[in-house]
User: Fold this.
Amino acid sequence: AQRVTQPEKLLSVFKGAPVELKCNYSYSGSPELFWYVQYSRQRLQLLLRHISRESIKGFTADLNKGETSFHLKKPFAQEEDSAMYYCASRGAGNMLTFGGGTRLMVKP
Amino acid sequence: DAGVIQSPRHEVTEMGQEVTLRCKPISGHNSLFWYRQTMMRGLELLIYFNNNVPIDDSGMPEDRFSAKMPNASFSTLKIQPSEPRDSAVYFCASRKQGADGYTFGSGTRLTVV
Assistant:
């Protein structure tokens, strides 16, 4: 069974500091990995996916198969980045399995 | 496109009452998912449908929960009887075949007192 682990429930940083939101997955095959973001009182939105290797709002995430990780990074955090972040994986089936989420707070 | 539409946005009900949550997926999306979000457990998949057919309902917590998708544009999640521990935000999401991501609705915040 797939499992996605986000070890930090809360991450608090100051504006301008680097951010790394950790995500580890367990899946025997080749999963598709995603990061979703949920701003206060809004719906979940897809932030980025590992397949496209894109940078969205300054965030990047690299799939490390050796460490089974897909950490989300941003070199300089902004206050508007404060939100709930969910890592998710999709295996052979259609379902997304989400991690427990990490709340990022960026202080001024 | 209005996106995935969920109703009601908020529901407060008494323990023992029946609760029905509604979802309208994006037109043309053939997969629909119901998730429950709580502080303790995060996002849990309850059930998902493919072409209106339930594929995996292993996440449905117990028999009090049931979900239907009578057609491609409508799904319901019913809790009968409701209990205080059912209090959570329930999200519906849909996905088009072949697409990467899901599109989520705004959620229904359920409070059972």
